[in-house]
Fold this protein.
Amino acid sequence: MDKLDIKYLILDTSAIFSGKTINLDDVKIVTTSSVLNEIKPGGKDYRNLQFLIEKGLTIFEPSKKSLDEIRVVSKETGDISRLSKTDMEILALALDYKNTENEVIILTDDYSIQNLSNHLKIKFLNISQPGITKRFKWSYKCMGCGKKFNKNINTCPICGSFIKNYISKTKKLSESK
Ligand SMILES: [Zn+2]
């Protein structure tokens, strides 16, 4: 990816669903093909999408290297089970832009995407929700024997009980953008 003096705005599915007017001055709007595939033809969301395409929405695919990095980081933060393939691709695409020293912002309402963005020092903008003000790390605890795990598993390997996930560590964010 070449470095250009423009700002990239990466739209996830929630950004397109929101139908919010996006200020498109001086920005290049991009998304991945997996986001497009989540939007069914016909209906309001599709019209939003058509509008954005007319405004220059461009499709890019993330590099495998960035996708691998997202997988590693999301495993560390515990967000991996909350991130869809589409979410991971959005984050990886943002990382590609960041690594090539482009200015990039993810437009998303998804808390896990926002949390990962914080960990990766990628800027994000919230569309409709208040947004997260703390960076958090997920942990997992057995509801039966109380053993803690740092991986998301469904049942406890020791007693077979249900594993609950909870936020183990939070760090206040000074500024989320
Ligand atoms: Zn247990």
Notes: The pocket of zinc ion is lined by residues 142, 144-145, 147, 156, 158-159, 161 (CB under 6 Å). Residues 85-99 form the longest helix (15 residues). The beta strands are 7-11, 27-31, 58-59, 103-107, 123-125, 134-142, 148-149, 163-172.
